[in-house]
């Protein structure tokens, strides 16, 4: 079989079977090991002078190919256009979009430069799979220098409705660039629909739709295919990690400090798309309106900072610190802190074990392509005494996890009510919901996501 070449902004720091590896990284790495191939992307280093070339590291049949970025490229391509323009726009926050034409030029320039670095390493029958919004112009860049290999693209974040996308200057160039891929993958059917709507209504393109095959798109003088491929996890592996971690130090500490109280838990990157402020307020509403919950339930929010050099991320951090301080100041008692807000990264086995310990998984993003935390929470539960997932209707995962209590993350009272329902839910109901969700996670695990995408790309 032909080699697989994965291209992503960052190359995952894989230590085989190691705790840092998330579902996506493990799924993609598995595919690479099966077919042999290469994982190419930014090393994560900002370097003082343009790098001499790519650093290659062989691990069995897989080559990790990484390269540093100079400060200007980092600022324009990564911090600028990717994270201050595309990320807010694609998460339906046009109010947060910052656009600078030099950053857009830098974004396109870095994509071309990365393409030029990769091209000499390619073999004629390699299949290339590009990931995420940092690399929208990557296929176009490769085509311009004569690369004819099959190239697919998977968008991990939502694809916005046309009216939102139109607020991004140069949107037409972005969508035209997307049409240089052979296959586009989206997380959910609504994301695919939003893309098709742009093609038909804004780009004068045409679409042939099929019931169980990717649709065929003609636009900008190109033809390509597109479909939804919801990303999954490996639920059995997560369940095993969670069980193993039950007696670990961190879990014992949390249990000891809970003193039999119930635990509501959330884990996110600290990002304004994750709905953290609204979530804190919903927990406050619960203890405000239901005094019997006070001193009987604690909320643990784990959220390590990310992208802290983008303004909007500094703002959300300050806002959350203020909210948790205010709520705790108002309700805390000598032996009870309502909200435990922890600003750091935990390893996967610890998170899995904490998920298993908690009575409610509270996952309420304002927008999210999929949200793997929701799937990991369900996977980690004890089948004999599972917790309840409270999930935002705006997470891609809400379309699959039918046993969750689905909430609107802007409806603070509705979220507080869902928390109360979850905390009081009888065992039989919890078990039925858990079983349905676990079975569906097993059926649509991350291998299924990867294999379906690769089948359609090779087709
Ligand atoms: P993210 O926005 O990062 O991913 P999510 O899917 O929830 O969102 O998390 C990705 C991984 O990071 C999960 O495996 C999770 O366990 C881990 N993680 C999150 N917070 C953590 C923490 N505090 N400590 C340690 N690990 C943590 C993007 C899109 C999502 C999409 C994924 C995959 O935004 O919508 O689901 O890609 O496609």
Automatic annotation (TrEMBL):
Protein name per its UniProtKB record: Trehalose-6-phosphate synthase
GO molecular function, one term: alpha,alpha-trehalose-phosphate synthase (UDP-forming) activity
GO biological-process terms attached to the record: trehalose biosynthetic process
The keyword Repeat is annotated on this UniProt entry: no
SUPFAM superfamilies: UDP-Glycosyltransferase/glycogen phosphorylase
PANTHER family per the UniProt record, alphabetical: BCDNA.GH08860 (PTHR10788:SF106), TREHALOSE-6-PHOSPHATE SYNTHASE (PTHR10788)
Record function comment: Probably involved in the osmoprotection via the biosynthesis of trehalose. Catalyzes the transfer of glucose from UDP-alpha-D-glucose (UDP-Glc) to D-glucose 6-phosphate (Glc-6-P) to form trehalose-6-phosphate. Acts with retention of the anomeric configuration of the UDP-sugar donor.
Catalytic activity: D-glucose 6-phosphate + UDP-alpha-D-glucose = alpha,alpha-trehalose 6-phosphate + UDP + H(+)
Family: Belongs to the glycosyltransferase 20 family.
EC numbers, comma separated: 2.4.1.15
Source organism, top-level taxon: Bacteria
Entry keyword set: Glycosyltransferase, Transferase
Record-linked Pfam families: Glyco_transf_20
Subunit organization: Homotetramer.
Pathway(s): Glycan biosynthesis; trehalose biosynthesis
């Amino acid at each position: 079989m032909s080699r697989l070449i994965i291209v992503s902004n960052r190359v995952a720091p894989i230590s085989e079977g190691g705790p840092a590896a998330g579902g996506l990284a493990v799924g993609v790495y598995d595919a690479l090991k099966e077919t042999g191939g290469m994982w190419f992307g930014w090393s994560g280093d900002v370097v003082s002078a343009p790098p001499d070339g790519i650093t290659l590291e062989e691990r069995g049949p897989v080559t990790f190919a990484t390269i540093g970025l100079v400060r200007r490229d980092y600022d324009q391509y990564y911090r600028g256009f990717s994270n201050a323009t595309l990320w807010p726009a694609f998460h339906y926050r046009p109010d947060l979009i910052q656009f600078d034409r030099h950053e857009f030029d830098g974004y396109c320039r870095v994509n071309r430069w990365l393409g030029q670095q990769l091209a000499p390493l390619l073999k004629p029958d390699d299949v290339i799979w590009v990931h995420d919004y940092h690399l929208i112009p990557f296929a176009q860049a490769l085509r311009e220098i004569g690369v004819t290999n099959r190239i697919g693209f998977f968008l991990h974040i939502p694809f916005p409705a046309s009216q939102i996308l139109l607020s991004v200057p140069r949107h037409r160039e972005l969508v035209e660039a997307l049409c240089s891929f052979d296959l586009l993958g989206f997380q959910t059917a609504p994301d695919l629909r939003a893309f098709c709507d742009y093609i038909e209504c804004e780009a004068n393109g045409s679409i042939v739709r099929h019931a169980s095959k990717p649709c065929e798109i003609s636009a900008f003088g190109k033809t390509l295919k597109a479909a939804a491929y919801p990303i999954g996890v490996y639920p059995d592996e997560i369940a095993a990690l969670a069980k193993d971690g039950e007696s670990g130090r961190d879990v014992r500490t949390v249990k000891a400090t809970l003193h039999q109280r119930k635990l509501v838990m959330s884990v996110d990157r600290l990002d304004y798309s994750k709905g953290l402020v609204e979530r804190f307020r919903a927990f406050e509403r619960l203890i405000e309106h239901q005094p019997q919950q006070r001193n009987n339930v604690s909320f643990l929010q784990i959220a390590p900072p990310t992208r802290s050099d983008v303004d909007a991320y500094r703002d959300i951090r300050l806002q959350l610190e203020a909210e948790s301080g205010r709520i705790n100041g108002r309700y805390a008692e000598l032996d009870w802190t309502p909200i435990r807000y922890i600003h750091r990264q935990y390893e996967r086995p610890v998170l899995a074990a904490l998920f298993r310990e908690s009575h409610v998984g509270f996952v309420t993003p304002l927008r999210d392509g999929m949200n793997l935390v929701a799937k990991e929470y369900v996977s980690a539960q004890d089948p004999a005494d599972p917790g309840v997932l409270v999930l935002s209707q705006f997470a891609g995962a809400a379309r699959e996890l039918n046993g969750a209590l689905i909430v609107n993350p802007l409806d603070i009272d509705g979220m507080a009510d869902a928390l109360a329902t979850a905390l009081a839910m009888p065992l039989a109901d919890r078990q039925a919901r858990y079983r349905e969700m676990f079975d569906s996670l097993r059926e649509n695990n991350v291998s299924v996501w990867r294999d379906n995408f690769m089948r359609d790309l090779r087709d």
